[in-house]
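Protein chain data
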Amino acid sequence: MAKENYVILYGQVRQNPKVFISPKSGEYNGAVFQLKVLRRLRNRDAELRIDLPVILTKNPELSKQIADIRKGDMVEIRGVLTTSEVLKVSICPHCGAKNRKAGVNVHVTPIFINPQEKGQTDETGLELLKKKCEISNIFMGIGTLCREPDYHEHREEDSHRVIKTCAYQIAMNRKYFIREDPQDLKTDYPWIKSFGPLAEDDKDHLKMNTLVYISGSLQTRSFAKHAVCDQCEEDYEWNDVAMEIVPYNTEYLSDYIKAEKEE
């Protein structure tokens, strides 16, 4: 099966990166930061949206390069979308206990970093992002559906506009080898969320094991999640974060549901 998993970002660094250095050897062994990127909503002409993907690497050379980056700097990144199973921590508001539940983190693993305009303010950074909006947030990938698609329609209260969405998860084989990860880790499992006419097409064509090619962008969002405290057994809500792919175009490559006229 063809492999494709490629991310292109141009954005502004939100905060000074967190860089991890071994106290014994002084070697760089990791770095993480958040990047502010911009994209145009294809179903709403001229409307722009800011997203905040997490950039994470364990590569010593890239970590050392990231150590010179500061809040406000503009950076170009080329990399891959990476998922990892983690324990997510939430704090119970009733008793203060820390609760850990299995979850998935999604981040961009860089393979190339190109620092550009230094020390920009929020205002000047936004103007630079607007000039490069079309290349600020790009994703391309090939994967196989590992869940059945979930299609929904709901009406906005203020505009009464009907919003159509289709969410599904794909298994995406890695094109680039990340030597800092376990050697048997070769597949990532991002979520896809399509909107409007594309969501309708996805509902009609996608099923388990459909192979798709997606070109689109990364979307980040926070959402409320329900939990039950392991200590006091009280219910509470906590804020989780998600990063998913919003496709602009989807090609159904194999094992998809064909319309009658395609038969």
